[in-house]
Amino acid sequence: xxxxxxxxxxxxxxxxQADLIPDRSRVDQIDLALRQRLxxxxxxxxxxxxxxxxxxxxxxxxxxxxRVMTNAVSPWLFCLYSRLVTELAKEGAVxxxxxxxxxxxxxxxxxxxVAFRDPRFAKTWWDHLQLLLDTDRRRPFRPxxxxxxxxxxxxxxVRGALALLSEADPAWFEExxxxxxxxxxxxxxxxxxxxxxxxxxxxxxxxMLNAALPRSTIAMVDLLVHESSHVLLFGLSADEPLTRxxxxxxxxxxxxxxxxxxxxxxxxxxxxxxVHLAMRRLIDSQSLSxxxxxxxxxxxxxxxxxxRTALDLxxxxxxxxxxxxxxxGELQSYWRTDTMDAGGVGGAPSSxxxxxxxxxxxxxxALRAGCGGxxxxxxxxxxxxxxxxxxxxxxxxxxxxxxxxxCISVELQCGQELxxxxxxxxxxxxxIEEWLRARL
Length: 440
Known about the structure:
5-stranded mixed β-sheet, 3 domains, 17 helices, 5% strand, 5 strands
């Protein structure tokens, strides 16, 4: 297959931080390169099938190659191409898989917002998408179709976030629209399988979001920038890996409770840095309400803290390729030149007093955030109100995403950087209050 440098026209060396700044034209160039790779690979697959089957040609192959080269294609085509490669490797149902690729090529490039298992698309297509996203044996990924009210609310939230981004930061809106040409709304099949969003290299131009979680407009912008930045980094690293580390190595993640491979840490650093930048740009646009600006400031600080933690891990442990060195250099440059006050950005909330009731207000609000905006169940609420020191962390039954929202809420309210890793070292809920009391 052709290298990215072979199919993208020559241009001057990129300026520092170029991969962090939103740029629709860069996405279009990556898209062109990936489609040219895809067309060449389809040609190769056709030759293999012809040789294996006594000269028989795949019907419609030439037209498919022309379609791929002509314009952007549906993310479904990239998804189903990976199934075609799998079927070819195991000498399976190549014709069926190829027919699906041809059908996907007839779809418009932009599918917009769709529900998981939408019947307009074949069940086998959805099954394969789930397979591509189910990459961790320790955390099975079993999404399902959201309930109708969840689906409607999440679609409204996505459209609201896109409208805000279009008004406040048109350049970022244009890039994001090119990176997320299909947004799949799903829900976890059970609470323990919670997720916020999911993206994969094999679905260029698409991501899946958890529709079961209510979000503010700023929180949805955070999520959309986060997932689209994963897609962007997949595209940027299509020709060369970022690191040479052993894939079995695991490191503590600033974003997840489970340890991650070094490439996961790299992705985490990249996407949280870009969310930090996006929040700064929203604040600087002067388009936000006071409340939204305050939330954006808190999310900038949270993502900035996570990015710097991940950057430190990368600097100590990553065995970088030349490509990885270049992108890491941009991340280092960004954080060297960042001039924001570490205590907050653009009107971040001031810290509360050390009054015990005020700390209780902070953790109560954070509990609601961890419960998706709803009050905790009656037994938990009563134990907290009664200052029950026997209430354990495990009794809350929070997954990693819920703890992330809990910690973001704490930081938004009082500026204290509580992380899921801090909570992992605690047993009782009152330890969280004591942690806060010692710092306020």
